[in-house]
Amino acid sequence: MNIFSLSSMKKLSMNELGRISPTEFKTIAKIPIFVILDNIRSMNNVGSIFRTCDAFLIEKLYLCGITANPPHKEITKTALGATDSVDWEYAENVVDLVQQLRKNNIKVYLIEQTDQSIPLQHFQFPEEKIAIVLGNEVFGVSEDLLSICDGAIEIPQHGTKHSLNVAIAAGIVLWEALSQ
Predict the structure, then answer these.
(1) How far apart are CA 101 and CA 103, in angstroms?
(2) Could you write out the DSSP letters of every residue in 11-28?
(3) Residues 6+ away with beta carbon under 8 Å from 20
(4) Which residue stretches of 13-72 are H helix?
(5) What is the pLDDT of residues 29-46, one digit of tens each?
């Protein structure tokens, strides 16, 4: 695009976006990724991750531990209807869930900074189903998961904080998975 065509740019209307209904969403092929939320405190983060899973056609979202479940006003406010389209399930114990997924030959990767993390830009997302675990806003993923998962993926950061909001981290990782 050259700079002279910008004057003719216009925002797309809702009709022009070609959005599908939640019913149609349920029937179309999904990206073979399970997203696991491990003890997420903020219901706004949960709602945002629902929307991200909808946007990227993620197969399933698991809510674990203290992570709140829909319907809840704070989740609904940020999910904007994605709780109706995204397939989700509550699992009380994240370790039990991960062990069950691994028994079903699903590789599970933590989104976490560890001494063996693979930088996101070097991680090759496989074509078969995988699960990614996003952890608590303060403590990260449960320590018990380190020894039972297949690896850890780290989003490289260069500022002073070396942490991202969990909903932002989910968006970055899922975008990279979709891009590959």
Answers:
(1) 5
(2) PPPTTTTTPPPHHHHHHS
(3) 28
(4) 22-27, 43-55
(5) 999 999 999 999 999 999
